[in-house]
Write a structure and sequence with these properties.
The complex is a heterodimer.
Chain A: E1 4-5, E2 10-14, E3 19-25, E4 32-38, E5 45-51, E6 56-59, E7 62-67, E8 72-77, E9 86-93, E10 104-105, E11 109-114
Parallel strand pairs in A: 2-11
Antiparallel strand pairs in A: 1-3, 3-8, 4-5, 4-9, 6-7, 7-8, 9-10, 9-11
Chain B: E1 5-7, E2 10-13, E3 19-24, E4 31-37, E5 44-50, E6 53-57, E7 64-68, E8 74-78, E9 87-94, E10 101-102, E11 106-110
Parallel strand pairs in B: 2-11
Antiparallel strand pairs in B: 1-3, 3-8, 4-5, 4-9, 5-6, 7-8, 9-10, 9-11
Classes of the chains: A mainly beta, B mainly beta.
């Protein structure tokens, strides 16, 4: 049973515009959420995270929003750049110690930023 | 500073065979987790090793086993390979409680 879902397999955005990647989860016990970016032939790279006690976390061009009541989070990239083209995975953890806990991943969204 | 490294990069085996995959964690990290990523899916947690012991395990059969060495490197062993074991196997390391850093993976193909 998929506890973390990314319903959009792909997304195309013009360079300079906003990219919005969405993620839904079913387990209300998830305590921490992360976004990873994956380029071909490389492992996932940690991008940004958010604790369940917050509703927003920002790091440069990347902002993650969490709506606990809707069990929904989103990653905003502004402005989008061609180098952002990659597969983005949403992941969730049952505790704040994300290094100690197994991560539950979504199926990923392939973002293509068009120059 | 070397990141997480995995070997081999690619591997081809036949059904029923056994395979061993290797992982060296990022310098300073003491915890290693293994994930399986099937085609079109997200990574799925197999197990995690800390202080040379398995401390957590996902929903994988006993054919999947592992080991962690005193230098924190780790091996993943899969016995009696099935076609469905074909996947990208990812190793992630961490220094508790910080987040996990992933290696490039080993692509296993079972024929």
């Amino acid at each position: 049973d998929q506890q973390v879902k990314q319903n959009s397999p792909s997304l195309s955005v013009q360079e300079g515009r906003i990219s919005i990647l969405n993620c839904d989860y079913t387990n209300s016990m998830f305590d921490y959420f992360l976004w990873y970016k994956k380029y071909p032939a490389e492992g996932p790279t940690f991008l940004i995270s958010i604790s369940s006690i917050k509703d927003k976390n920002e790091d440069g061009r990347f902002t993650v929003f969490l709506n606990k009541s809707a069990k929904h989070l989103s990653l905003h990239i502004v402005p989008s750049q061609p180098g952002d083209s990659a597969v983005y995975f949403c992941a969730a953890s049952l505790g704040s110690q994300t290094g100690a806990n197994n991560l539950f991943f979504g199926t990923g969204t392939r973002l293509t930023v068009i120059p | 500073d070397a990141g997480v490294t995995q070997s081999p990069t690619h591997l081809i085996k036949t059904r029923g065979q056994q395979v061993t995959l290797r992982c060296s964690p990022k310098s300073g990290h003491d915890t290693v987790s293994w994930y399986q990523q099937a085609l079109g899916q997200g990574p799925q947690f197999i197990f995690q090793y800390y202080e040379e012991e398995e401390r957590q395990r996902g929903n994988f059969p006993d054919r999947f086993s592992g080991h962690q060495f005193p230098n924190y490197s780790s091996e993943l062993n899969v016995n009696a390979l099935l076609l469905g074991d074909s996947a990208l196997y990812l190793c992630a390391s961490s220094l508790l409680p910080d987040t996990q850093y992933f290696g490039p993976g080993t692509r296993l193909t079972v024929l």
